Amino acid sequence: MEDLYEDLYMETKIKFFILIAIIIILIITFVTTYLKYRKDLTAGYKRINEIQSQIYQSKYGEVEYVLKGNGPTILISHGVTGGIDQGIWISKSLGEGYRFLVVSRFGYLKSSMPDEPSVKLQAEAYKELLDFLGIDSAFIMGNSAGGTSAIHFAINYPEKCKGLILQSSNVPGDVKTLPPKPIMKAVFGSDFLYWCTITLFGRNMIKTFVPESIWKRISKPEKKNLLDNVFLSGLPISNRTKGVLFDTYISNPSINEEIPYENIKLPTLIIHAIDDPSPPIEGARMISGKIPNSELVTYETGGHLLLNHEDEIKKRIRNFILR
Q1: pLDDT along the chain (323 residues), means of 10
Q2: Domain range annotation of the chain
Q3: What are the Cα distances from residue 246, in Å, to 79, 105, 106?
Q4: CATH class of 54-176+241-322
């Protein structure tokens, strides 16, 4: 009997130590994970806080912008999870010799979200900002989700638009089932949930931007750099939540509405990869066929980010603007 009690005691003791070990491992894992999250979030805040942006008080609310450089003016309309920081990154890819007007679209960073937002109102806000700055006209570059409002700007304000550039732009295509709004609000409304999502599922999510054929060929450091540039650059996501929801449920779907592309008489440059996993190349071809004075530049590979074509695209855009 005494041996039985001793065995039970030892078994209980072992289970207790195992439980303590598991708790310690969980605590260490959580602390390590949280410290990594705080490091990435702090880096995100540091990056956007270093931007010396200005605020224009429009009739739709505040519009954050940066005006820099000399040369032909290019208004940059950034993509989803972006903001003025993404727009500045796009401007750097174009090189020097331009005056860039970079804005945060509705609901991104310091830009307000109107009560009843639409891509037409966003285009009107561009026009109002140009008037405020005394800029007679500008080229507009719509990147990804920013393409929809750029298209409406070219249609509705041709006197303010010298030309339209659409790079991996949102284009008409199959109507997709949208994710439940409560889930989108939860993930894109919390810096920590967003960080956990991209940390755990980033390798699957990147397929929306980079074709599998390209992903397999690039090195591990290049993969990490892509994941950081595409997803970590969205931190702090809580400062972009309203913009992400606007793009997901209003701006992007509106591209499938009736849009009079034939009314765009301006020079138009459309750049799109055939293997873009997101906006379909067929939509880019359709738009190009309807816009009278348009040029469609396609690449067999490159995906949504147009990888490995950066120098050629820079030259294409320069020739388009300076011609």
Answers
A1: 62 78 84 92 97 97 98 98 98 97 99 97 98 99 98 99 98 89 97 96 91 89 90 97 98 97 98 93 98 98 95 98 93
A2: 1-50, 54-176+241-322
A3: 12, 10, 8
A4: alpha beta
